[in-house]
Amino acid sequence: MDQSFDDFVHSHQQTLVRYATLLSGGQGEAEDLVQEVLIRVYPRWDTLDGSRYAYVRRAVTNEFLSWRRRWSTRHIRPTAEVPEGQVELGWSEPDERLALELGKLPRQQRAAVVLRYYEDLTDAEIASLMGVREASVRAHVSRGLAALRSVLGSSERVRGRGHE
Amino acid sequence: MSDEEDELRRMLAARADRVHSTLSGPAIRARAQARRPLRRYAPVLTAAAVLAVVVVSLVLLQRGGPQPVQLPPAAPVTTSPEVTSTAPPPVLTSPAPTTTTKHSQVSSTPMSTTAVTTSSR
Description:
The structure holds two protein chains of two kinds. By secondary structure, chain A is mainly α.
């Protein structure tokens, strides 16, 4: 059991923390999120059926969306509150702007967008994972994409400038 | 629309590729082991606490609340009939000096003894 668990952490921790970073906005909080989930999953590791990665990813998503984590991290998320005038992101850091805009999305929308465009899940898979209807997933993804459109446009401009 | 989605995919992947985590299986297992006893007994402790609260509540409900303590009034309460009733004021029929002082008793006794002695001569 221990060897299996260690192998899983060694193989998947990078992918899980990257996914959690896109959800939470920061690597520290993402590592905390993944570690908390793995600590909780470990005692029943041998009883898990099916894809363990899918199970842990679902647990990470639920933990991210849970009221408990929202309450506990309410006061330690200053990155989204940084005034834009003092941030020197510029056109050369569109992914930083993406992170900023992602952080402004409601959590359900953010999770749906990341699952759709980073994990490449279908609407049905996202609906099953988040415990909502497919129509809700489509609405979340559509609204999230609309909110991120300004960032995507700026990225296109950067690429255009790079080609000139 | 498809270009935007492809662009978003590329940007999310680029953002994620910057992350390099350092979680280790043994460290997570050690934390899970340390947390295990508390987690194992938490349901039992919670159930015991709830049971205790229920039992205490039932006992208190059966007994009722504590009896109110009747304290004597700090000062004599005057229920003046002049204020509360329309009846005429009570008439005093008995003489007021119902109690005799010691001085009057002493003064009356020698007079009687004096009278007795004069009569014997």
